[in-house]
Amino acid sequence: MMLRKLLNVRCGHLVRRWSSSDPLSLQNEKLQSYLESLRLEYYGLRVNATGNSRAYERLSQLEGVVNALEQRRVLERNITSAKDIEQEKDEDMRKLMEEENEVYADLLSKQEETMLQELLSLADDEVYPALIFGVNAGAGGQEAMLFAQELYEMYTSYFEHMGWEYEEFARETTDIGGLRHANVMVSGADAFHWLRFEAGVHRVQRVPATEKSGRMHTSTVSITVIPRPADVHVHIAEKDLKIETKRASGAGGQHVNTTDSAVRIVHLPTGLAVEAQSERSQLKNRELAMKRLQARLVQQQLESSEASKQATKKAQQGSLNRNEKIRTYNFVQDRVTDHRIQGGTLYNLDGFLKGGEPLTGLVEKLQLEHRRARLRDLLEAWQPPQKAANKD
Amino acid sequence: MFKNLTRSVRHLTSRALTHYNYATSTRSSGTSSSTSGCVRNYPAKQFVAVTKAVEGWVQKLEDAGVHDTEFNLKCIVSHVLKRKFNTVPDNFSQLHFNPKQLAEFERFLEARCARMPLQHIIGEWDFMDITLKTAPSVFIPRPETEEFVRLVIVNYKDVEHVNMLEVGCGSGAMSLSMLHALPQVEATAIERSKAATVLAAENAKLLGLQKRFQVHNHTMEEDQYLPEQLQDKKYDLIISNPPYVKTEEFQFLHPEVVVYENLNALDGGSDGLRVARLVFDLACRHLHSGGKLWLELGNEHPPLVKTIMHLKYEGRLNFVGSYYDQYKRERFVQIEKV
């Protein structure tokens, strides 16, 4: 009890952020016993985990939290209780104790923050090695397509900013530089955890370049994020392919000098056809076409497979409704507002559309919010084991 | 009759060429004045939308017998605008020529209508992952050759060290793309044309591969297969795309080939294997035992090569197999030194 009092003083800022009724406060009894149960699970697993890959996975998941918990306990033990301080007769000694306690309390508050971070990362769902990111122009005609192109550029530079590899495999543009839709395969272990918050309807309000009378328009672009589970593999057999180039017959090799670089590949079992002509080298175009085919087949499989239906459903839990308006880009006021979090308004739209720090910061906020919500749900659903309850 | 035709086409394009050369020289001398601001000061109406500039050319190109016209146009547009090919949109939207670029664009297309090879007009070409400079007198690598090189690369990607010889390297396309793909390869090449020798060395330098690539100007003859300094050398691998067009087939060649390309790089004698036979003899002397010879040939050659191996090289060279190009033609052969 005394210790808790002391903590309350020292960790004032923490308490203010998560008031004690907050289930995520470390003073919360339920969280305490939840942590204890995690600790027991961890040591239990460590003893019994031989050769079981699922157990190892869970172990590495728990390791961060349990380590943080242990460190916290060590720190707590080092703090001299107020009672002991009172009993100490020597004035100097008492002062020393108090100073020491201050240092430890400071460390403890830092420790708590890392622990909370670790705990929050526990709330993350499964990991997907890649995802399919789609940009689709919605209501608003040409203007929506122009904005789709701007968003597309923002996201591709965001992918670069985050160091993810991406490959565009379907894209349809308009004459005036707009974008009807584009699909991009993004690979990176953490890509899904960040990008899923971008799925939804993005709304733009501005006077379009195409508008002659200067009225403000509202148009929309929707973003889709389909996770690609690790176990989706597509095998393409050489015999299933029909590879066509523009030159159908006639002599080849040194006899002719046709540039002949465009390639079309038909996947006979599915009837899917892909083309590539963006490179001057035929071989490069063929590689490109093969990649596109691969991506298309994966997408097809994803859309049909049960696993991905579940994954997508999971991805859309909470604030991730595909049809929900999630963000507004208002050019007149030079602001962008995310409708899912408080304080989600940022200014300097141009900077935001560059896809760098401002976007990263916003997504970080969304991620934190999402993790908290998940952890809260987790705690609510969690029932302390009988034994642990009795101990208290 | 055939010669006359050749001469008249050659005459036509030499005019186009001098025109072009003249234009490039004035352009280089005129850059100082143009950068000082007059380009920026062109009134907007002098800029011409590319979509407008290309109007009518598809028909003209087709009338001249050029296939794949849209691709040709896009190559030339991106070259004139000095942009990478894959960054130019297919529909040329929002691209503009200034008056100089427009003039250049039209000159290049005139040359193309006169069947000057596209690769010569734009002065460079992509081959697998590398970009090569091209020159008028040097053979231009074909798409099927990419397939051939890919096949060789697949066969050698896990071999620890490869000492390779190329016979007749031309612009250096095959050797350089091998070197680019596989760091464990070292390549030596021989080439009979002086211009090609210089170009191959230049390409190696441009690609930063000159440390692993040396090229010798040498004409292969009987008992004089390699230049003096390489007389005693043995190799793990020899690759070659020797001239294999039969002399009788010359009348069927495209104008791009017969008028503009170095016919020495094509002429394979009466059965198309005149040079290949020399390469067989070279392989006998300069391959390590177990070393391989890979050849790209014409589509009726592999069975012929197989017979020749059995009849004349029994105990020295061994026919391993033949492979098809992407047009399902049997074109590539692998031979092993016993």
UniProtKB/TrEMBL annotation, chain A:
Q: From which residue to which does any coiled coil extend?
A: 52-102, 276-310
Query: Entry's SMART domains?
Result: PCRF
Report the GO terms under cellular component: cytoplasm
Which key words are in the record? Coiled coil, Methylation, Protein biosynthesis
Q: Name one Pfam family in it.
A: RF-1
Q: Where is the Prokaryotic-type class I peptide chain release factors domain?
A: 247-263
Q: Please, which domain of life does this record's source organism belong to?
A: Eukaryota
Give the molecular function GO annotations.
Answer: translation release factor activity
The record's family statement is: Belongs to the prokaryotic/mitochondrial release factor family.
- Under which name does UniProt file this protein? Peptide chain release factor 1-like mitochondrial
- What is the source species? Drosophila madeirensis
UniProtKB/TrEMBL annotation, chain B:
InterPro entries given in the database record:
DNA_methylase_N6_adenine_CS, HemK-like, N5-glutamine_MTase, PrmC_N, SAM-dependent_MTases_sf, Small_mtfrase_dom
Q: What class of enzyme is it?
A: transferase
Q: Which reaction does it catalyse?
A: L-glutaminyl-[peptide chain release factor] + S-adenosyl-L-methionine = N(5)-methyl-L-glutaminyl-[peptide chain release factor] + S-adenosyl-L-homocysteine + H(+)
Instruction: Cite a single GO BP annotation.
Output: methylation
EC number in record: 2.1.1.297
In this protein, which residues make up the domain named Release factor glutamine methyltransferase N-terminal? 54-123
Q: Does the keyword Ion transport apply?
A: no
Q: Which GO terms describe its cellular component?
A: mitochondrion
Q: Which GO terms describe its molecular function?
A: nucleic acid binding; peptide chain release factor N(5)-glutamine methyltransferase activity
The record's SUPFAM superfamilies line, in alphabetical order, gives: S-adenosyl-L-methionine-dependent methyltransferases
Q: Which domain of life is it from?
A: Eukaryota
Q: Which UniProt keywords apply?
A: Methyltransferase, S-adenosyl-L-methionine, Transferase
Q: Name one Pfam family in it.
A: PrmC_N
Record domain Methyltransferase small: where: 132-250
Protein name (Swiss-Prot/TrEMBL):
peptide chain release factor N(5)-glutamine methyltransferase
| Originating organism | Drosophila madeirensis (Fruit fly)
